[in-house]
Amino acid sequence: MSEPFRRGTVQCASARRMAYVEWGDPHARTLVCAHGLTRCARDFDFLAPEMARRGYRVICPDVAGRGDSDWLKEPMDYAVPTYAKDMLMLLARMELESVHWVGTSLGGLVGMALAAIPGSPIERLVLNDVGPVLTVAALQRIAAYVGKWPPLPTIEAAEQFVRATSATFGPHTDAEWRFLTEHVVRRNADGTLRMHYDPAIAVPFNAELPSQDIELWSFYDAIRCPTLAVRGEQSDLLTRDTVAQMAERGPRARVVEIAGVGHAPTLIHADQLAIVRDFLLGA
Question: Which of 37, 90, 200, 243 is 20 to 30 A from 63 (CA-CA)?
Answer without folding.
Answer: 243
